[in-house]
Design goal:
With about 400 residues, this protein is an alpha+beta fold. It is built from 10 helices and 19 strands. Helix 2 runs parallel beside helix 7 and helix 3 crosses helix 10. The longest helix has 16 residues. It binds flavin-adenine dinucleotide. Flavin-adenine dinucleotide binds next to helix 2, strand 13 and strand 17. The site of flavin-adenine dinucleotide has 38 residues, from helix 2, strand 13 and strand 17.
Length: about 400
Amino acid sequence: MNEFVERRVRLTWRDPKPSYDVVIIGGGGHGLSIAYHLAKRHGITDVAVLERGYIGSGNSGRNTTVIRANYGIPESIRFYQRSLELYQRLEEETGRWLMHTEKGLIWMVHSEAGVRGEKRRALLNTAAGAETVFLTPDEIAELVPQIDLTGGGNGYPVLGASYHPKAATARHDRVVWALAEGAMDAGATILQRTTVTGLTLDGDRVVGVETDRGRFSAGVVVSAVGGFASEIAAMAGLRLPIVTHPLQAYVTNHYEQSFPFIIGSVEIPFYLSQTPRGEILIGAEYERAPGYSWGTSFDLLASCSAKAVAYLPFLARLRILRQWAGVCDISPDASPIMGFTPVQNLLVTTGWGTWGFKAIPAAGEQMAELIATWRTPELIAPFSYDRFERDRLMADAGSAGTH
Ligand SMILES: Cc1cc2nc3c(=O)[nH]c(=O)nc-3n(C[C@H](O)[C@H](O)[C@H](O)COP(=O)(O)OP(=O)(O)OC[C@H]3O[C@@H](n4cnc5c(N)ncnc54)[C@H](O)[C@@H]3O)c2cc1C
């Protein structure tokens, strides 16, 4: 949070109290969205968000901002479509310009199996309410004249694509600040530079958190810490089915033409879009090896750029300006985990992996409803923690776009 933002966003900082009805660990998009929706939809404001750095310093300020709902199973499509629709009205709701821009997403394929998969995705998505169509190579070239359908002769020509017209981007840090502003305006407390170091347990019930600024009692504790979910769970003796992997992204200098789409390949993972400044923002797969490193690598730049340049040769003329990384909480079925845990009064929202920015409004809305009513809303019931022991996996790795 810099001085520029402080002057423009009304953040009402409050002093800490010893006790809160709800303590949310993690001031990323998810933690703030829960606080925002608790206050705005349910009038619950005795809430503290504890953030060890500054708000948005985790993945919520590091992502490539793609918002889409074109998932591969009905439960996910419905959930992400809700989030996409909430994003469409978030500027109006918060009164903040979030740079939300509808762009459309083109997901290319290069094999017969890929064509079948994306035709199926188009049908399933449309049936579940997330408009998606299949495009032929000629139709892709009409939308994106810069494309080389032969992939530079790499042996993987473009055979088609699914096209999801309502996909969008929004400025990630503005989303974080708008949610923080709304929550704080309504009475919630956000404490930055406050690291949770332990959970206070009374039997199998969580009753508070230990931090480097002292202890806070809590009626409910929510863990919303992105890639650090396993650390917090371990404080309560809980082992989450989450493995943390680094994910990198980078941005080029200004491309003089307008490039209005988000485009990527499902089978040769890379994706890109143009920022409001004209830069091309590029991302790819998460690192195979688990880890917590924010380090970046030349290998990623080289492999991802080779893939992207093959289909969009204009990229070869651009320079890479910045590269960064975040750490992603990946679940075994590549779907999120939201709701109750075996530890009483300890809730989690995790498994957001490489796809959680798009989920911020709906996940916050639904988790807030769960806290307010102590019942799991239907939309997120399929993503409960106990689905793994019930053998009800929500397997959808093929929709991650970064796998
Ligand atoms: C390079 C990259 C590109 C991505 N691109 C996209 C995309 O295009 N679209 C998409 O939908 N998603 C994308 N994602 C994923 C998305 O960014 C995340 O899923 C989402 O931001 C997760 O939000 P969060 O609030 O759960 O976590 P975070 O934003 O990581 O917030 C968690 C917060 O918890 C804090 N914290 C951790 N431990 C503690 C502690 N002990 N005490 C107090 N605070 C603590 C951290 O400091 C952090 O601020 C991308 C991720 C990366 C890294």
